Amino acid sequence: MPKKINSTNLKEYLLVYVDESEEFLEAMKYACELARTESLGIMLLYIVQGENFRHWKGVENIMREEQKNEAKEVLGKYIKYIKDNYKLHVKSYIKTGDKLDVLIKALNGKRPKIKNLVLGLAMDKIENNKVISSLTGILRKKLTLPIIIVPGKIK
Description:
Elements: E1 12-18, H1 22-38, E2 41-48, H2 57-86, E3 90-96, H3 99-107, E4 113-121, H4 130-136, E5 147-151
Parallel strand pairs: 1-2, 1-4, 2-3, 4-5
């Protein structure tokens, strides 16, 4: 049985971007194994894309609430999985905005301390790798920490 990590002693976390893809699941599992080995916590970040419905404020509010509820449900499922299977301390955040802007802001924030960003790499679907391509390409100068890229379907 894995040892339980004392969350009061945690100073660093691995940040995992949640998108419910198969690649995310591989990245999350890898991050959990690494966190358990290095006595780190896991931080899950769910980003709700900012929709622009300024003309219909009531519709915008309903859609935002639905997206937020969906994000809470998804995060709850993965938090339970991590706690049940890895006995790790988990923090979760729901942010609204552009994926890349929110990720960079989270990575460059001061608290809590993020040691690495863990992303899943789609081996067969190039369109799923836009975040990785952007962070390792034009936006790499804005990063202040390493990225761990986990290939999908690891054996």
